Each structure stands twice: as structure tokens, then as C-alpha cells.
Amino acid sequence: MSTTPATGTSAPSTDSPAPGAGSYVIAEASGQQFWLQPNRYYDLDRIAAEVDESVTLENVLLVRDASGATTLGHPYVSGVTVQLKVLEHRRGPKIIVYKMRPKKKTRRKNGHRQELTRVRVESITVAGKALA
After folding, report:
1. Residue 62's domain spans which residues?
2. Is residue 18 part of a domain?
3. Are the beta carbons of 43 and 36 closer than 8 angstroms?
4. Structurally, how many domains does the chain consist of?
5. What is the C-alpha to C-alpha distance for residues 24 and 112, in angstroms, rounded to an integer?
6. 106 pairs with which residues across the strands?
7. Rounded CA gap, 132 and 126, in Å?
């Protein structure tokens, strides 16, 4: 007999946890909320920091540790910091905005590329202890 599930897919590997599994935080950066996990990289709006520089986020809204305990802040959880490392500055995909008024010979075409910073979550500390 096979040990694979009936759907025909292989059993999930434990090498990389699925989003929602393990420990994570929801933090505020660049006016947006991000679901952050250790040792993963994310694209944030441009941060005024040099490449290979460390950035600390202190506006943490929610913390979930490996045991499954969740702490919700009002509005922020105190004593929690997220250490980020700036990997590179880049630009997002080009967005084309095209406006046209029919029968009026009025056309306007604009392009936009968002300035982004790619960061990696180095560590998440809760009350001085590293969140694993």
C-alpha cells in the first residue's frame, strides 16, 4: 500500500513551513501590515537604509510563537522587535494607466514602477528571547 494521501499528492514536507505554520508576527511597515516569519524575505516600500544595513521594526500588532500561543496588541505588543536586513533596492513591475475619452481625441498614458526594498527577517525577539 502507498502512504500518499488519496488525492494523489505526496505528503507535505517539513523543510519549509507553510504560511500560518510555526511562529510569525504581524508587523507594521511602510504604512502596511505584513505577515513576517524568520529567515524569509519580503518586498517593502522603499526604506531609507543602505544595502546590508539592519533595520528594526517595533510596531508589532500580533505575535504567535511555535507553541501556538497568540498575543494580540492594543494597538501594539510591547517588548517585541523584528530585525530586518536590507538585501537590495529594486523597482516593482510597470503598471500602465491609460485613460481615453471616446470621440474626443483625448488620450493619456502613464507608467509607474514602485520603488521597493527587499529585506530578510533576521530575527524576532520577544522580551529579549529569540522567537524560533
Report:
1. 24-130
2. no
3. no
4. 1
5. 32
6. 101
7. 10
**3-state class of 92 per DSSP?**
coil
Q: Of the given ranges (15-19, 114-118, 128-132), which has the lowest mean pLDDT?
A: 15-19
Contact in structure between 50 and 66 (CB atoms under 8 Å): no
104 in a structural domain: yes
pLDDT tens profile 60-88: 999 998 888 899 999 999 999 999 999 99
Question: Is it the case that residue 127 has pLDDT exceeding 80?
Answer: yes
Q: Could you give the CA distance from residue 16 to residue 5 in angstroms, rounded to a whole number?
A: 19
Mean of pLDDT over the chain: 86
Q: Does the residue 4 lie in any domain? A: no
Residue 64, exposed/middle/buried by CB under 10 A (0-12, 13-18, 19+)?
buried
